[in-house]
Amino acid sequence: MKLVTNFDELYKKVSDSSDKLFNILKNDLVKVVPSPDRIWKYIDLLKEISDLIKDRINETGKETSTTYLFDPYREGLTSLGYTRHHFKVLEKAGILIETVNGLYLLFKPKAIDEAIKKFEEYLKGEGEFKIERIEIDLSELEKLFDRIVIKEEYKDVIIASLLQAIENPERPVHLLFIGPPASGKTLILERIAKIKDLNVHFACGGQTSKAGIEEVLMTSRPRILIIDEVDKIESPAYLSTLLTLAESQKLIIDKYGKHINMYLPVTIYCACNRINRLPEEFLSRFTPLEFTEFTFDEFREVAKLIFEEEIGGVDEKLLNKVVTRLWERRVKDPRRVRDAIRLAANIAKIRKIELDKAIDRVIGIYKSYDFLTLRTYSSRNRITR
Ligand SMILES: Nc1ncnc2c1ncn2[C@@H]1O[C@H](COP(=O)(O)OP(=O)(O)O)[C@@H](O)[C@H]1O
Ligand SMILES: [Mg+2]
User: Fold this and answer.
1) What is the CATH number of domain 138-290?
2) Residue ranges of the chain with pLDDT lower than 50?
3) Phi and psi dihedrals of 104, rounded to 5?
4) Can you give the pTM of this predicted structure?
5) Which residue has the least CA distance to atom 25 on ligand 1?
6) Which residue's CA lies nearest to atom 20 of ligand 1?
7) Domain residue spans in the chain?
8) Fewest C-beta atoms under 10 Å: which of 4, 192, 282, 346?
9) Which residues does 77 contact at the CB level (< 8 Å), separation at least 6?
10) Ligand nearest 190 Cα, by number?
């Protein structure tokens, strides 16, 4: 057990300011609480502690100290259902510090009460936490689509939805990009994520959990929530959190007898390959933008952009060759153009041949397949083996 004797040191670690405590509640407590929906248990515990100290101040008559010692076992907190674990969590967040014979609480009850009040306003989007108005140049939104091949009407819809998110965040229009791999969905989402002065959170469906998303929403209150690969979300509970958020701009968590109802005007942009595993009610929240397979001209345009990025310029003859050869083989994935250029550049170096020849060699390995036939081909192979 550690012995804490230097109270000045302790005092410096955790001051008695309500602002500081509020920041701890908002940023640190949410992180150490096992799941955000249990946060009220800890808020209630803090209220109990605050009341305890208030009682003691009433007994002695005056608020004299900035540090208050209490023993959770002797003061009866454990009989209210709080365990050692609850105190450990508060300690981990930096609200309490354990000493040799119990716990020292370093906040005055007034600071605790103020911080909790502010935290509640924060959750409700009231007081100083009202949505901040921002101004963004329209021309900056137009630039989002530089070097991206996309239908004009889709461009307009995306810009219009972003404008709504900026000017009328309380009445959002959420978008769902649906389309085959390498159609530019992630590319556009990444551009949106980079808009200056807009608090955007970028998440990936397969990589986040419901609790993870709730923590982000609570602590950083993004204006825009992006979920790429949203069809990889397995959890119905996670999707249901998003349902409510999308429709009523509320983060509602109702569990363990506690209730979080946080006003959170957020515009949601999602992308997926397929919609068949997403529930109908989820889909109904979004305006769908279907990214269909590229036409030959679009594919050529994308390939041209990739040429410029990879080798700094475009040799039209070479470009046409790559595009037509791939197209003949029914390969419409821009990533194959990119890979072919990268491989060919190195093959040209190793074999000391022209880039043009090297491209021929690389494209020669592409069979006339699309991924569907490749898949049936390999499974057929497995059966005969
Ligand atoms: N519409 C497009 N315009 C420009 N480049 C594109 C487009 N679609 C795909 N690409 C190229 O292909 C790459 C992969 O696209 P990506 O946005 O990741 O596809 P996905 O639709 O699978 O999310 C991009 O980095 C880009 O180089
Ligand atoms: Mg993608």
Assistant:
1) 3.40.50.300
2) 1, 373, 376-385
3) -105, 125
4) 0.78
5) 187
6) 182
7) 7-129, 138-290, 296-372
8) 346
9) 45, 48, 49, 52
10) 1
